[in-house]
Design a protein that fits this description.
Blueprint lengths: L5 E12 L2 E4 L5 E4 L2 E11 L4 E5 L6 H8 L7 E8 L10 H4 L2 E5 L10 H11 L5 H10 L13 H15 L3 E5 L7 H17 L3 E6 L11 E6 L2 E7 H5 L2 E7 H8 L4 E7 L2 E7 L4 H9 L3 E3 L3 H10 L8
Parallel strand pairs: 5-9, 5-10, 7-8, 8-9
Antiparallel strand pairs: 1-4, 1-6, 2-3, 10-11, 12-14, 12-15, 13-14
Helix pairs in contact: 4-5, 5-6
Bound molecules: adenosine-5'-triphosphate (ATP).
Length: 317
């Protein structure tokens, strides 16, 4: 039996961190500034879809995902998670949280025990855990289960996180930048595996990223956050339709682009490529065809950069 996919609803959600104190390596006490991580965030992560959660460094992605996994409560607004029509507050709610698997780059593993001990732990925690599938993924990613997670390379630790996230088959599966430590072949193996297993075992998947280019093919839906606010939450194709790319001779492209807002312009010898906001009219499309200008979709990465460019990040890491 597999559980129905969980959706997640954010209504006017705020997260404000209080100032705190921490011990420095020199043994002195330092004050950690508080601040607003989310402010009036309203969006839906649809049940049974793969959603890309996009945002620059410090935008609020991890804070938002921590709410779904019950790590903290919002300081304002309401978060609800669960099967469609039965969403509940996840906070201290075991019925909901047993169906939410958040995979973070930090791992959430037993660092001092061998990998197989961590896997046994997840097998008891996650009702839908598939041990055979976990074994296949461990082979695919060449992870030695007799090592401790601390003895694995950073990339192998990320792959262990991916293994846990996939084999848990949780109705809400969240990957928070989990693939950052992986090399390119491993990341592509992870993306392929995710799509294959999602097709066979439908569930809700959220992938947070600021590396949009290579993961955008996975997204059916996108949520873009910027400085704690939701800039947009919509099907990925609607976001793609927010822009048009034109490639051709400079004269023809610039003529078509006149009257449109140009988001980006690039010259490649005699060829010019521009990204416009919005779509061409039918007349302009005919004109483009006549003048040999290629009209195409805009990669999500370009739109993401454009949408979030006007504001400087609060901080970088
Ligand atoms: N424990 C904390 N105490 C104080 N401020 C925090 C804490 N955690 C996050 N913040 C602040 O909240 C804001 C959002 O951080 P968050 O980690 O949610 O962003 P993010 O989008 O996941 O960033 P990144 O892509 O860099 O991981 C940042 O300004 C950050 O400094």
């Amino acid at each position: 039996m597999s559980l129905d996919p969980f959706g997640a609803h954010f209504d006017d959600v705020g997260v404000r961190y209080r100032a705190s104190w921490r011990m420095t390596q020199q043994g002195t006490v330092a004050k950690e500034a508080g601040g607003v991580a989310l402010d009036g965030a309203t969006c839906v992560f649809p049940a049974g879809a793969i959603t890309g959660l996009l945002g620059r460094n410090g935008a609020g992605k991890t804070s938002l995902l921590g709410l779904l996994a019950g790590f903290r409560r919002p300081t304002a607004g309401r978060v609800r998670v669960g099967p469609e029509g039965q969403e509940q507050d996840p906070w201290e709610n075991p019925a909901i949280l047993s169906g939410v698997q958040l995979v973070r780059e930090s791992g959430d593993v037993m660092a001092e025990e061998d990998v197989s001990t961590t896997l046994k732990h997840y097998a008891t925690m996650r009702p839908e855990w598939d041990s055979d599938y976990a074994d296949r993924l461990l082979d695919l990613f060449e992870i030695d289960v007799e090592k401790t997670p601390a003895a694995l390379s950073r990339g192998k630790r990320s792959a262990l996180g991916a293994t846990i996230g996939l084999a848990a088959r949780a109705p809400l599966t969240i990957f928070d930048e989990v693939y950052l430590g992986m090399d390119a072949p491993t990341r592509y193996a992870f993306y392929d595996e995710l799509l294959k297993d999602y097709a066979e075992h439908p569930r809700t998947i959220i992938l947070s990223s600021h590396l949009v280019e290579e993961s955008e093919r996975l997204f059916e839906h996108v949520v873009v956050v910027d400085r704690g606010r939701v800039l947009l939450a919509e099907p990925a194709d609607d976001m793609r339709a927010r822009g048009t790319s034109l490639t051709g001779s400079a004269a023809a492209v610039d003529h078509l682009a006149a009257g449109h807002r140009v988001l980006h312009r690039q010259e490649l010898g005699p060829t010019v490529m521009v990204t416009l906001e919005g779509a061409l009219t039918e007349r302009e499309e005919a004109e483009a065809a006549d003048s040999g200008v290629q009209v195409g979709a805009v990669p999500l990465q370009d739109l993401f950069v454009h949408l979030t460019r006007t504001t400087a990040p609060k901080e970088t890491d």
